[in-house]
Amino acid sequence: MNEQQSPTNDARPSGATIRQRVFGEANGQPTAQRDSVLEPFFQTALDHVWGGVWNRPGLELKYRSLVVVSVLAATGHREELKTHLRGALHLGWTVDELREALLQIAGYAGFSAAHEALDVLSEIARSSE
Amino acid sequence: MNEQQSPTNDARPSGATIRQRVFGEANGQPTAQRDSVLEPFFQTALDHVWGGVWNRPGLELKYRSLVVVSVLAATGHREELKTHLRGALHLGWTVDELREALLQIAGYAGFSAAHEALDVLSEIARSSE
Amino acid sequence: MNEQQSPTNDARPSGATIRQRVFGEANGQPTAQRDSVLEPFFQTALDHVWGGVWNRPGLELKYRSLVVVSVLAATGHREELKTHLRGALHLGWTVDELREALLQIAGYAGFSAAHEALDVLSEIARSSE
Amino acid sequence: MNEQQSPTNDARPSGATIRQRVFGEANGQPTAQRDSVLEPFFQTALDHVWGGVWNRPGLELKYRSLVVVSVLAATGHREELKTHLRGALHLGWTVDELREALLQIAGYAGFSAAHEALDVLSEIARSSE
Amino acid sequence: MNEQQSPTNDARPSGATIRQRVFGEANGQPTAQRDSVLEPFFQTALDHVWGGVWNRPGLELKYRSLVVVSVLAATGHREELKTHLRGALHLGWTVDELREALLQIAGYAGFSAAHEALDVLSEIARSSE
Amino acid sequence: MNEQQSPTNDARPSGATIRQRVFGEANGQPTAQRDSVLEPFFQTALDHVWGGVWNRPGLELKYRSLVVVSVLAATGHREELKTHLRGALHLGWTVDELREALLQIAGYAGFSAAHEALDVLSEIARSSE
Q: Is B35 helix (H, G, I), strand (E, B) or coil?
């Protein structure tokens, strides 16, 4: 039980709490909880990404979200990018700012990666009009 | 001359100007201008990354810098990461905030990529103490 | 004819034989043999991956399969991952063990890569129930 | 206005001109110009990839095309690969030569990346029969 | 405190315990604990990779180690690969088996990635002779 | 012995022959033959990359070399890139053409990958002056 005695950890919100702050009430719970392959993954992600990294002090959630969007766009994980672009919009970034962020990665991860990421943002923007 | 007639482009600062804003006076010029292999690259980067992406309106330089740092950390380009971490510090991010940004990528690009990026930040932090 | 004189190679099973051991009788032959673009690829893979790497002595097929599944999950090649997860099951790994293997990569290739790989495993697990 | 005074740049064809040479008349214009997320990307790519890299002297378009196809196949950007395989055919490469180029990457980016790229080429070859 | 109430988690060994089992007594503690940039990373990795993934039931440590070695070799993280190859040897894999595992990745992540990984293994093998 | 009966394979030069054509007499043999970790890798690469892919008919060695250089530059394998840039020069590409090829990848694999590759080419160019 290594985390329990950690005083800094005690003060940090749970992964589930942080996840809800990022995605909003409606997206507060992952959807595939009944799947015996995916359920342990979701629980691990909740405990150890949301509850291990996202909930750290020292950088605003809005900026953490921009970091995650940049990484997912550069590495081509489209489904997760879609989810996190929605989180970024929920945290206050605008579609135009996110378009610029994705254009910015073009110089560093290539225009093809940027193109794919902007396709995802375009789809989100059109579906929410 | 496709760019010349573009009215939006006319109002944008040059790549060299933006590069200096990001890295500061001392780092305003790339260093290997005499190399016939590298010189065309530096000029192209200045014209088409600094003068094509970084100088766009719609997202602050400070946030563009965070995007670039995240992409370079995720994709393992250490030398460029070092340069851009210095730019990020110059634009107002603190060492602690950048540490948190690099820790944040651990969940998405893996802890090994984060470790390598934090080694670079640690080196910068120690050299500037 | 560099391979013919090689005494160690002579003792090794052919690529086709090994491929059948990994995937089972039903999957013993690739399916697109008539395609003039893909046929040379399948033949090259059979001769030089199955007959050049997989058929080497010194590591059990079951462990070679785990190595391949890990690499494909980390690098996001979903279709090949699906094929090789089936091979891994045929060689004796259980769905639960493979779920743990894919969860293990989360820390090193990121939770997004793990998520995508687990989606593939989940699909296989549900289709074979 | 950094590019305007550059004498070498003045002599270079515009990005739009080069793009048309690579893809042919019918593909001379990107299709999603009305999308406020994608339009700035297409303009930036036209000005700064087509008008910044592709239009440089010193290497034939046909060879630049082979470089781009190789990079996109190795990094798994399928949609862009499809577009650029069509460009490569337009510039004079044959289906058989491109098949060999994609088989060549198998040794360096892995047989899975080659397989995915050859699937794209196979689709193009079958659709144009 | 999301982890505290989890009954399955209660039974799992701590990250520090697992890390010591993998690397052995001498490598039981990370070395840069005093570095304010790296220390939070090591603690996070201990709590959330070692204590979140490695300590899960359902797959032997020896096989988890093979998965990690495969991922690090495929993605080119040499320093971490070196550390984890040592862990793999400590857990009972032989140099010859690990050589075969790294040769196996050649077909899937490319011979260049395999070459770099085998250079690391070769260095370890020679230093321990 | 799957390859022995193949009539097309019989007519193809051995891997060792092709390797020597690409790198020239002086580089005709890999250097670390005595290393029990690396020797099987070099033999496998000779038999199955040089003797399985490079020796295929249908695309000139010079173009295969350009494909390999592009892939290695895009994926950041510097040591192999250095070796293959030397092969490309031996096969008739000029330093200026290779500089343009590496600049071309900037738009698709990012300017950071291009920068690293051009550093390698610059080093080769300076050492051969």
A: coil
